Amino acid sequence: MKSDRLLSILLLLQTRGRVPARELAERLEVSPRTVYRDVEALSAAGVPVYAERGRHGGIALLPGFRTDVTGMTTDEARALFVLAAQGAHTALGLDQALGSALRKVMAALPAPHRPAAELTGRRILVDPDRWLGGPRPAADLDALQTAVFSDLRLRIRYRHSGGTRLRTYTVDPYGLVAKAGTWYLVADRRGRPQLFRADRVASAAVTDAPVRRRPGVELAEVWQQLRRQVEDRPADVRVTARIRRDRLDLAVRILGGALTGPPRTGDPDGPGNGHGNGDGDEEWAVIEVAFPVLPAVRQLLQFGDALEVLDPPEARRVLAEAAAGIVALYAADPPPP
Hints:
337 residues, alpha+beta, 5-stranded antiparallel beta sheet, 3-stranded antiparallel beta sheet, 11 helices, 10 strands
């Protein structure tokens, strides 16, 4: 609606100052010509807005002009109160600020919208942590936040996954991302994007050198690029296994993104596998799981005899050797107290 668009333009100008017409058009998904017509409409309504042409031009409000905008809809008011669990705000030290901000927003809302917003805050909760994820190491975000918001380079000592040695890097941060309860630092290292888990940063020091980000590149763009690299990373080992149906839901929750597709029904043994008795259609389901390296298949041992790997043979050998080692360990005499 045009009225919503006019309000959006007014809010953007109040927040950003001078904004190029093309940027406003992209944000509002209209043409620059439509933006200029909207500016004329705002001016006719008494809003002191003007446009400047040229390379450094744009659309702006006269200095000092502010307006209190309370034209929220009920859905917009409710959306503000659907907030993630306090974990993210606690990690950033913003719990008290969040509560204070919500109280101010509630006071500024039109009276008819307050009950719906208040009810939403009591009835809807977003918890970003996964089931069975276990306790996560605490991440010290103070220095990372300082570097992100002050546009300074950052020197970190970092431990990579599976490693014990700390490495020192100087990075150019774009920002912080919280994904499924885990914080990540998104930064350039030597001009190339890289992802750092915040809980693996042993120490961080903000330098005096200004950040050297690639021109025109923003956090959201770099995050999507790095996310695709992680999600599209080819798995070297694809395992086919059968699992008892009463443990299938648990396996889906634990294995999560490692599953390459939905569980299959039918004969779990398949032609030529030679495993099982072939009459377990109702008892078993077939799953396919991707692992980055062969030793990682030992993760499947947690399902005990409720899961059997069918293919590849080398994955069965890894599990057999690991299981034999466990049996030998517990068959021996227990160590002295």
